[in-house]
Amino acid sequence: MADKGGVSRRGFLQGVGAAGAVSCSGFLPFRAAVASDGFFEIAAGRSEHRLYKPDAAASSLWTYNGGLPGPEIRARRGETIKVRLINNLEEGTSIHWHGIRIDNAMDGVSGLTQQAVAPGETFEYEFTSPDAGTYWYHAHNKSWNQVGRGLYGPLIIEEDTQVFDRDHDLTLLLDDWRLDQDGKLHLESFGSMMDWSHAGRLGNWLTVNGKSLPSYTLNAGEAYRLRLVNAANARILELDLAGLGARIVALDGQALEAPMDAPEGPFPLGPAQRADIIMVPKAGQALALREVSGNAPFDVAQFPVSPGSTDQQSHAAMPVLPVNSLPEPDLSKARELTLHMTGGAMGMMGAMTYKGAPLTREIMRETGQLWAFNGVANLPEQSFFAAERGETIAVTVRNDTAFAHAMHSHGHHFRILEQSLPLAPDMNTWRDTFLIAPGETTKIAFVADNPGKWLFHCHMLEHAAAGMTTWFEVA
Ligand code: C2O
Ligand code: CU
């Protein structure tokens, strides 16, 4: 991957040894407060957090309800979810419910589905999810800045009947941060053109649920579900899941029709992607989730195993997640489209336009626009395509840039039909975000069945801001 250069150039700081592990009692996350009218109340505002070692300087972040990550929102499939967003920031904001096949008016995209919620104002979201699974929510106004400062949280949709109880269901939101010498969030580099034109804002320090190297004690012989979420702006994490003896049971919220043993070697988890894994620790094991993309692999979370009651559970006895029902693309009738990705440093530029005018070097410098889809930088006036409701859309995406990208479609999940150079074992699975390496071509297909205006963009948030954003419409 081209952005490997970023990893080795900055690297992750090393130094939290086993002695530095923070032990977390219990799995119960910070829950959203529910007001008397049944709304979860989520206030976006500033709060201080120590991202580095416990005695290091605190960073001033933007968070939901003062938590990093924001409070967990958890509901049953089909249940009505009501959230009141209160904006205590000094700029407009909105919340996007990533991966939910949602009612368009509730999708939370400022400038497309709603106006940004002004400082001091509130906005009420009300939606249901047709799918169970692991999702997340995050700011969707100047996301490169707002998500990069901490505005995200977990959104868990439970299956109709409980598969794992709360003691065996753990959500891990992974994020990388760029810290300065004192261990504080590096603020001056937000919006750096170097990041926007290269691999996006990469960090040098990794947190899990806002902590450095948390430790969760598991019981031997019991099955656990781990929900992994990559909340980083741009970092493609490479995780060693085989080392956990894990089975991959869901990707991007969708339970796999055929769960698989974690492949040996690095498992890539791109920005915004999720992977649910099941593992059964054995007595005497000391397990850790390891990040292996750099030259010096390191633990990101540790799982000491306490001797449990039984130790005989095998894969065969592992709980099975019910598969959501998604509309199957009808490939015989598919409308075939192409999305050509260009621009960025060291890439093919070709002719590009922005707001209807040619994108010259000078305009690039002024506006920070330097990537394009089909020659057009950023949210064009004209949609990428307009679909009839129920139409099958097949998109062949060709990456003619020098960087990897994480393409995300709003309101729909798609099947991966073809990958010229697979980054993840996700062939034919449902996803809402897919990774595409430089020079690669990937073909996806989905049924455009959700009416409204939907974004299709790179989830490397600097790339999205710098041109890699388009939209489509479903009648
Ligand atoms: Cu995770 Cu456009 O969003
Ligand atoms: Cu990108």
- Name of the level-1 CATH class of the largest domain: Mainly Beta
- What value does the Rg take, in angstroms? 21 Å
Strand content: 35-45%
* Strand order, largest beta sheet: 12-11-15-20-17-18
Give the domain tally.
3
User: What would you give as the CATH superfamily of the largest domain?
Assistant: Cupredoxins -  blue copper proteins
Describe the structure.
- By secondary structure, the chain is mainly beta.
- The chain has 3 domains: 9-159, Immunoglobulin-like; 174-317, Cupredoxins -  blue copper proteins (Immunoglobulin-like, Sandwich), CATH 2.60.40; 331-474, Sandwich (Immunoglobulin-like).
- It is built from 5 helices and 36 strands.
- It has a 6-stranded mixed beta sheet with strand order 12-11-15-20-17-18, with no helix packed on it. The chain has a 6-stranded mixed beta sheet with strand order 26-23-29-34-31-32, with no helix packed on it.
- The longest helix is centred in the first third of the chain and has 7 residues, at 4-10.
- The radius of gyration is 21 Å and the shape is globular.
- The model is unreliable at 1-11 (pLDDT under 50).
